[in-house]
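Researcher: Structure prediction, please.
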Amino acid sequence: MRRKHTIEDQPPRPAEVSAEEVIAHLAAQSKPVSIRQIAHGMDMKHRGRRYLPRIIQQLKRSGAIEELHGGRYRLTGAKNSQRAPAKAPALKADHAPASSAAPSETNEASAAAKPKRAHDPNLISGRLVAHRDGYGFLVPDKPIPGVDGDLFIGRDNMEDAMHGDRVLARILRRRPDGRAEGRIAQIVERQHPTVVGLFRYGPHANYVLPYDVRLHQEILIPPGEELTPELSEKLRARAAEGGSTSAVRAASRHERLSELDGSVVNVENTRYPRGGMAPAGRVIEIVGRPGEIGVDVEIIIRKHGIPHTFPPEVIAEADATPQRVSEADIDGRRDFRALPIVTIDGETARDFDDAVYVAKLPNGHYELQVHIADVAHYVGRGSPLDKEARLRGTSVYFPNRAVPMLPEALSNGICSLNPKVDRLVMSAIMEMDAAGKMVRSEFTPGVIRSTERMTYTNVFKVLEGDAEMRERYAPLVERFHLMKELALLLNAQRVERGSIDFDLPEPIIEFDEQGRMVSVVRSVRNIAHRLIEEFMLAANEAVAQYLEKRGIASLQRVHEKPDPKRVLEFEEMAEAFGYTLGVDDLSERRVPVRHGQVPAPSRAGRRERGRMRAMTVTLPGSDEVDIRPQHYQRLTAKIAGKPEERILSYLMLRSLKQARYAPALLGHFALATQEYTHFTSPIRRYPDLIVHRVLKWALENPEAQAPRALAPLLQGHGRKEEDSGPTLGPYRRAELEEIASESSEAERRADGAERELMEWKTAQFMEGHLGEEYDSLVISVQKFGFFVELVDVFVEGLVSIDRLEEMSGMRCMYRERDHAIVCEPYRSSGRGSRGAAGHIFKIGDRVRVRAERIDPFRHRVEFAPVVLETLSATAPKSRPRQ
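Model: Predicted structure follows.
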């Protein structure tokens, strides 16, 4: 029987021409050109000329190029008076992946960066967020005029793009409700130089199944490319024992190596998907076996692209840093070593950014000192340490592991404010009046010697009167009570101005001595947490106000006003519980769509649709809604202590925008303040390190003053991000914008990784509790089911609508007007349906559920409601005739 040959069986042939090279060539042309001119200009050989028409047609179908009269071609959107060719910008060295991407994809990124098209309002740049079902959304770099939200990309319009890629997309259709649909026109930059997945041997080719379900293609592994250096060495050793190298290599193509089959591997992409051809790669690392302790963390780290290995030059610089503070370091600093300064952190914390001290002044005021590790003293701007810290952006914290922003020699060593040793700090000294209002602040480099390494638990015990703790920390007892006094005043000041507090618990996994999970519990916050939170908020705000008053360019932590449509969606949810934000002009308005018609809903009990009627779109009553933090604050006070507090607080949080970093003064909505920055955690956040450098520059240049320093303060919340703003300081505006964007993205990446690993861990924990019943609360209702949160164990999971129908024998559907799932008996001519009763599931309902299974793809717990087992006995099982 003739053997079937596959692509993997054949030796690779060098590509004569690629679509990316054609795009690059067209971008450099001053006028449209024919196929023959393209071939001549690219100096193509015979095979390249033969395949060129096929590539031209592919590019034409994808919308990347357009054909003009006479068979000439140009980039889509380009005009006849085209520009001279420009050199493509090189990728930044400090952001290049450790393993280089395929050469063709490098050309793709360069070629895509070359064209400077005439402005085309329908060509949008952004990042592609794919869905596991094949479609995706383009998150635009800038809001699309006339389009609400992201650009929808159907599965047939995804082309060869992968999740996370930076792309150009063309708007195909604008819908009356403000949404839009588009098609990927060009891939600007690939996001996945490596992919983590499960290695499988196949009958014709080996492949890797990505753990990220948003990566839709399997990664083909050509013969021999599955061998890591360690495996290759093992095979060479076997060959030396009694066989030729070629024989062993041939055998390895058919042998299933136990180290590989079913293992988690990291794959370097050597070919990205193109023209329907699957991606290919080579195995560069065997991570471990699924289910082994620690492998889940390694998968999440690689899946989210978190840098986790420090380059040799970074380690060398960190190891060369002295681990003791010298007299030369102290020279010129204010000495705080005689004061009883303490750090207060969690029990498992190892890096201590901040230390605090509170004293009562003779005039009845309070003095608050916040001392922050002077990381900028040890991490020079532009050094290998600095470049790596910028690349990482933030430390990432998992339940039993941390991926630090800085090497341990700094993060847990000389930069950490460890007790009983000298440490360099940047100090914020603030004076508050008897009501907790700040009346004065100053900033200085300093040196401290922390008296005690306190924990939240022990400080709380001291404040609660625990005899053992009060005796153990007797010299500090009065100091802690003074801290509590000031913290409550500061909190009252924030509440008065409208600051919002969402006290939402977080899941905490408890482990035994062997590292096995024993429970998932809710985090508990006490007054000791509030002390540090209030003191850090005060220091951050004081630094931001000082730099803004001086007119010095820095990074702001901004939180913009919520979108009126999101607020309206929350109002609809809150009404189901009898609450409202009380925002004026938020009443919805229904706008008729010209020439649009939709069928009227059918009457109850009838399956056929009603007659056609005019189409309308629901919008907020006003485009500019006067929404203030006080609206949220009043509602949080109303629901405090109520059963629905957890759900409504979560829904309120979802209605708000996500906080981010920006060089512009855009205000912080949730904190109800205009100036706010991040200054207090330079060991684990890169923006804080930037703010430290800016503050140091300001203190070293006391006479420097921007001519328009007061202008931003006068503009208030109406200031636009693209305004020029202050330009004084060590950083240019453009550089700050880059750092802000990178840091915001790194923060989202870390949050996503931490959240996903917690889901994995809770799913692993629940695997040992399948079949058990729990009391739960419905916290969210969707078209595909509803999510519940268990009462006794802090675990969330899904009750799918398919499972509801299967268990009840009823028809279950999502009712949009009150966000509920309604289960009704099927219509039947038999008498059995007469006594049957339906069931409605709404947000806030208490439901008894049974843990049934773990979704292997989403690592999500799936439950079944016990209440439906009794209903199913009376519901008719036969479906109506279609």
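Model: The chain has 23 helices and 36 strands.
Researcher: Thanks, that helps.
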